[in-house]
């Protein structure tokens, strides 16, 4: 929402960030419990410019109300649902319930609680924290326009060989040796966009966002690592990132585009020469110094041709 007035252009959005909610669904007749913990952020686009220009709050949906709505809607959801479905439900509510709201953006980060296995048996009500996180960002416009993104944060992956980096620009500042043998480590963040563009075109069951999230994660990992025995050679993070994104687009027709962020987390070869003694440690692809920073930042978005942008 923007207004030009007295030489000032105002663009604004307001919302509530980091609303933490956990929900348990207790199985009938002693069946297993299902559990999620979500961190929900809401932004509303609404015509509340008088609040900024004149201190008139008449059209403001209080952010406290947004927070309460998260708990109220979680309570109403009597069946297990995915973060995406909860985001759509909240987005539909905010954009249709309030005449002043033209669009709602709901972002959710799911805490990676996983059902625990005891003696290989899934526990009925016990969970432990995993690593990478499932995320979603849903935009719902008044009238039903929809954008659903899902994502992964913090998928840490590493391979000890089958990676190199050669043929790059060399100048007087370049010290990095060319190599066909190095470690490759990254923490993948991915965000992909589904092709549904209206709340009426969202597929119902059996389409399952949770399963799709697991499928995309598998395709990303399979492409990064390659076959179990021999792996696959990576000539750069850039090429591996591209192949990962391309594999997702070619495997899932409901996904229009994917953004991947893959920091290059360096493992530096350790050589310890001394002035007087023979070399204490000579690097032989064995001892490394892991570093978090500085790190390479490699990021790209792949979009399917002919996507309805
Ligand atoms: O895969 C890589 N891509 C780069 O752009 C780069 N730059 C660098 O120093 N090492 C690497 N590795």
Automatic annotation (TrEMBL):
Primary site of residence: other
Coiled-coil zones: none
Binding site for urate: 63-64, 165, 182, 237-238, 264
Pfam families: Uricase (PF01014)
Pathway given in the UniProt record: Purine metabolism; urate degradation; (S)-allantoin from urate: step 1/3
Gene Ontology terms: biological process: purine nucleobase catabolic process; urate catabolic process
Cell compartment(s), UniProt: Peroxisome
Reaction equations catalysed: urate + O2 + H2O = 5-hydroxyisourate + H2O2
Keywords of this entry: Oxidoreductase, Peroxisome, Purine metabolism
E.C. designation(s): 1.7.3.3
Keyword Ribonucleoprotein listed: no
Record-level Gene Ontology MF annotations: urate oxidase activity
GO cellular component: peroxisome
Entry-linked Gene3D superfamilies: Urate Oxidase (3.10.270.10)
Binding positions (5-hydroxyisourate): 63-64, 165, 182, 237-238, 264
UniProt keyword Cytoplasm, yes or no: no
Record: residues binding O2: 63, 264
Active-site residues from the entry: 16, 63, 266
Biological role: Catalyzes the oxidation of uric acid to 5-hydroxyisourate, which is further processed to form (S)-allantoin.
Protein family according to the UniProt entry: Belongs to the uricase family.
PANTHER family assigned: URICASE
Name by which UniProt lists this protein: Uricase
Natural source organism: Aristolochia fimbriata
């Amino acid at each position: 929402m923007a207004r030009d007035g007295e030489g000032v252009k105002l663009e604004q959005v307001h919302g509530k960030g980091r609303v933490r909610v956990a929900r348990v669904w207790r199985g009938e007749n002693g069946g297993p419990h299902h559990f999620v913990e979500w961190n929900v952020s809401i932004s509303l686009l609404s015509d509340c410019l008088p609040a900024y220009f004149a201190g008139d709050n008449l059209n403001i949906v209080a952010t406290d109300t947004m927070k309460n709505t998260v708990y109220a809607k979680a309570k109403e959801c009597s069946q297990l649902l995915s973060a995406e479905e909860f985001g759509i439900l909240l987005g539909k509510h905010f954009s249709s319930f309030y005449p002043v709201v033209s669009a709602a953006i709901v972002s959710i980060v799911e805490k990676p609680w996983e059902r625990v296995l005891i003696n290989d048996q899934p526990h009925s009500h016990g969970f432990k924290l995993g690593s990478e996180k499932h995320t979603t960002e849903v935009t719902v416009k008044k009238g039903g326009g929809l954008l659903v993104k899902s994502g992964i944060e913090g998928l840490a992956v590493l391979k000890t060989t089958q990676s190199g980096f050669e043929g790059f620009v060399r100048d007087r500042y370049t010290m990095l040796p060319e190599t066909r043998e190095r470690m490759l480590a990254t923490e993948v963040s991915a965000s992909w966009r589904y092709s549904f563009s209206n709340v009426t075109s969202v597929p119902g069951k059996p389409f399952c966002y949770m399963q799709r999230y697991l499928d995309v994660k598998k395709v990303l990992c399979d492409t990064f690592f390659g076959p179990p025995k021999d792996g696959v050679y990576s000539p750069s993070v850039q090429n591996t990132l591209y192949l990962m994104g391309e594999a997702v687009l070619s495997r899932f027709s409901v996904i229009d585009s994917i953004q991947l962020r893959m920091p290059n987390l360096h493992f530096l070869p350790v050589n310890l020469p001394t002035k007087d003694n023979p070399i204490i440690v000579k690097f032989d692809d064995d001892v490394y110094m892991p570093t978090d920073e500085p790190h390479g930042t490699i990021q790209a978005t792949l979009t399917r041709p002919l996507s309805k942008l």
